[in-house]
């Protein structure tokens, strides 16, 4: 038998079971993004009357929901209509209208075209800096491959490619829209991947992503590290892919240039790599073990994206759209991680007060 309190009773039960979105809402004030969002999603229709555009903060939260769960626009529309925890996170009730998949795509498209997605990411990091969540005592650099749907060619198309001629599909404007010419192939551990790379720098203590660069998957990990480091870095951790003298010199040069201090240097804790007929010594192995204890924390970030955020997969075409998607993925991770750290800090303060 239905009652007036069915919805509230079900939401109360979800809260007791541990609604992660409720934790995120209580720890993060999404209204702080509104001034930024108002400059991105601008209504050009100045006519009086008619339906108002969707609330900017709610649409931003929908995009974050997408990235937290790794779902498509259609699946997002369905999930909002179907799940009470999604509705509560967005401030919606059962009687409210829900944006459809095309609307979600449109807002995401406007964000990518504005080029201001990185501003949202940097803005929230500034907030975390002020809260003391980001400690800056050490930074870890690494890169992860984020896959796109692979481009497959038939025999005739391969013949065009072999002759260096454009395929008919590449000259057809309608078919060309479906071909991601910005993505690239790469090989890792004898496995072929197609897509992009998310080069990240994380705070060693909090595991918050402090900066990132998006490139085609074929780009080497070590090529972006000089752009990721800055004057705030004190110690840089990395795996053996960054263990080259030229890379070390590039890092130190970047630190000096960004700090305007020719004497400033950063401590490099880069794992060493053995070579044929030149294996690592026992001392080098012991040093690698010490470095790896901190460096491995970046794998926790990638693992969380893979297992708890619906995986690392891209549905867009082109580096502009995919850069925006990766930015939102990194930001969604930071929001989730920050919510955990803030709640952990509150619990510690409460236990200290009780004791």
- What is the total number of structural domains? 2
Stretches where pLDDT falls below 50 for ≥5 residues? Answer: none
Largest sheet: 6 strands, mixed
Backbone structural class: alpha/beta
Shape from CA axes?
A: globular
Percent in strands: 5-15%
In terms of quaternary structure, what is this? Answer: single chain
- Helical content stands at 40-55%
N-to-C span: 47 Å
Radius of gyration: 23 Å
Helix-strand string: HHHHHHHHEHHHEEEHEHEHHH
What's the count of strands?
6
Question: Average pLDDT across residues?
Answer: 88
Give the number of helices.
16
Structure description:
The chain has two domains: 6-42 and 52-114, no CATH class; 139-148 and 183-321, no CATH class. Helices cover 51% and strands 12% of the residues. It has helices spanning 6-17, 20-27, 34-38, 56-69, 73-82, 84-90, 101-114, 117-131, 155-163, 168-171, 173-176, 225-228, 245-259, 282-295, 297-307, 319-354; strands spanning 139-147, 184-188, 191-203, 209-216, 235-238, 267-270. Strands 1, 2, 3, 4, 5 and 6 form a six-stranded mixed beta sheet that branches. A hairpin with a 2-residue loop joins strand 2 (184-188) and strand 3. The chain is globular and about 75 Å long. The mean pLDDT is 88.
């Amino acid at each position: 038998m239905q009652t007036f309190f069915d919805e509230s009773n079900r939401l109360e039960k979800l809260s007791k079971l541990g609604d992660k979105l409720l934790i995120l809402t209580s720890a993060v004030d999404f209204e702080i993004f509104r001034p930024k969002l108002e400059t991105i999603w601008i209504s050009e229709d100045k006519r009086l009357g008619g339906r108002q555009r969707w609330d900017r903060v709610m649409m931003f939260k929908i995009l974050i929901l997408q990235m937290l769960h790794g779902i498509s626009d259609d699946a997002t529309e369905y999930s909002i209509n179907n799940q009470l925890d999604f509705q509560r996170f967005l401030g919606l009730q059962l009687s409210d209208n829900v944006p459809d998949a095309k609307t979600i795509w449109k807002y995401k498209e406007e964000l990518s075209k504005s080029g201001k997605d990185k501003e949202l990411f940097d803005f929230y990091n500034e907030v975390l800096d002020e809260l003391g969540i980001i400690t800056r005592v050490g930074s870890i650099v690494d890169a992860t491959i984020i896959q796109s749907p692979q481009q497959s060619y038939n025999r005739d198309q391969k013949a065009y490619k072999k002759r260096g001629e454009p395929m008919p599909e590449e000259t057809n404007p309608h078919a060309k829209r479906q071909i991601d010419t910005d993505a690239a192939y790469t090989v890792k551990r004898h496995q072929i991947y197609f897509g992009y790379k998310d080069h990240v720098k994380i705070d060693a203590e909090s595991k918050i992503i402090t900066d990132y660069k998006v490139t085609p998957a074929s780009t080497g990990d070590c090529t972006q590290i000089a752009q990721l480091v800055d004057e705030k870095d004190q110690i840089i951790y990395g795996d053996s892919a960054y263990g080259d003298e030229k890379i070390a010199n590039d890092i130190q040069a970047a630190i000096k240039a960004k700090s305007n201090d020719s004497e400033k240097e950063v401590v490099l804790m880069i794992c060493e790599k053995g070579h044929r007929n030149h294996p690592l010594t026992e001392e080098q192995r012991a040093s690698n073990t010490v470095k790896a204890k901190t460096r491995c924390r970046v794998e926790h970030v990638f693992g969380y994206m893979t297992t708890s955020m619906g995986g690392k997969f891209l549905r867009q075409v082109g580096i502009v759209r995919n850069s925006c998607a990766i930015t939102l993925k990194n930001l969604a991770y930071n929001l989730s991680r920050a919510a955990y750290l803030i709640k952990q800090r509150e619990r510690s303060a409460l236990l200290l007060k009780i004791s």
